[in-house]
Amino acid sequence: MRHLLRALALLAMALWSAPCLAQARNQLGPLCTTSTTPADQQIDACNKIIALKVFQGAQLANIYFWRAIGWNKKADYGKVITDATEGLRLAPSQAGYDLRGRAYYHKGEYDIAIADYDDALKLGPPDGTILHNRGNAWRAKGDYARAIADYDASIKIAPSAFAFQNRGISKQALGDLDGALADINQAIRLDPSLPQPLINRTAIWRARGDFDRAIADGTDAIRVARENPPVNIMTPPNSVLITGYTHRALAYEAKGDYPHARDDYKALLQLTASDAGSKANQATARVRLSLLTDATTPTPHDTPSSAQQQKTTTAPTSTATPAPPPAPATTARGKRMALIIGNGAYAHVKALPNPPNDARAVAKSLRDIGFTVSEGVDLDRAAMQKVTRDFLREAARAQVAIVYYAGHGVQVDGRNYLIPVDVELKAGSSMTEAMIDMDTIMAGLDDQVRTNILIFDACRNNPMAPQVAAAGTNRAIEGASGLAAPTSLGAGATLGAGTLIAFATAPGQVALDGEGANSPFSAALSHHIGTRGLEVQQMLTRVRAEVVSGTKNKQVPWSNSSLLGEVYLAEK
Questions:
Q1: d(CA 422, CA 435)
Q2: Which of 91, 236, 355, 461 is a Cys-bridge partner for 275, taking CB atoms 3.0 to 4.6 Å apart?
């Protein structure tokens, strides 16, 4: 982007040297078209120039471009898009499309960003900066192969620390930790003053279970970011610090150092988030901090095997200070955990006979293939909240986490909620306070070094219409038409292992409770989930086919995935 800005700056210099402008107007020019001008001054100067109505065409487009730069400094991406669009209408340019593409990227609208980058590349020769930025958008969409291809092309044109760093992130997402580490190390060599590569190396060490190295890199990254705030005007304010604190906090938490993890979560929540990735990190931080508020230092969850214990007890002793034992989570990176809940014995809404049976069947299938299962049946709100929070806390030590829920579920204002058995809505009460927010569960699990699989057989008929009418609330409750598709599968800045979410039926549709002991969906799921050598998405395809056949096309299970490779719940 720098060379694109430089070209526009040269154009601006020519404009302000025109003899037809008075000296006062000449002073406005540099303020408007200099990247280092403070945002408010830059926007004000550009406003005054536009008000003069002196320029047209490409010259006026240039002013709108620079005012968009000012809005970008303030992270007001809506106004960036408005001004960049007006500039492009007057005179299409690579810089204009690139700038607008970045604004869409920071808003989380990746498909539109990619379209803008495509248009930018059509206007001129291949550009390393634009290729790099398009790679970022592909990466945000989870299309890591295309992202790597764009980073490769960018590096061939102009090797940069950011291109190596982001190619490394993409390789990490695909499970190539060695390739990722090599790229991140090259980024650090090219520019040791950048905190971002250190942050991403933090995630690599954590994925390997080396929490001390992860914490050390995270600490260096935060120090560098505070001492040398990013000067790139395209970097969202506070985004680097928020990401740095997030990764160090997760490393502290995985190590079992809860006090330091809490401090980091609090620190990042005090910062203002402006971009989609930072907001997702803060959503996760709020959940994780809540989980750790009353938590104590954990005890090791994976004890050594009997052979290891015997070896330890027979080893020679030493008078030297013994090395500290490994962090509890270091041996647990391969741990696979599941939370299974089946609610059917509702006291104030329609009872469901099958969810407890469904939960027990799925829990047994997962235990049979080696999962550590937390199981709850017919839970009231307090019990459901406790088992959910305990599971989310323990998930910091898991490589694979599964959440399965059978029971009533509803949409409220487009968000999905799971319903405890004691739910009772009364006039004037808040519906959501009585339920469990699915988005909170997803935010608590959002972590690039873990695979998350969430399965919900909770799309039955809305049990709450009478209570909603009695409550007299103006909230939009859409439970009569099933659950809503999630807006994100983990919106963190750098997704890793990925997330899969599955519903018993398509979003907005109603699932069947079944006439036998299990619902059609859960019966098929418990039948196939333990099949050895069956990749998880292939497994869900079999489940879908069985449900469609068994219900005579009345119910079609739905799933969406950001998984980055093949995931096997049972060994091949």
A1: 10
A2: 236
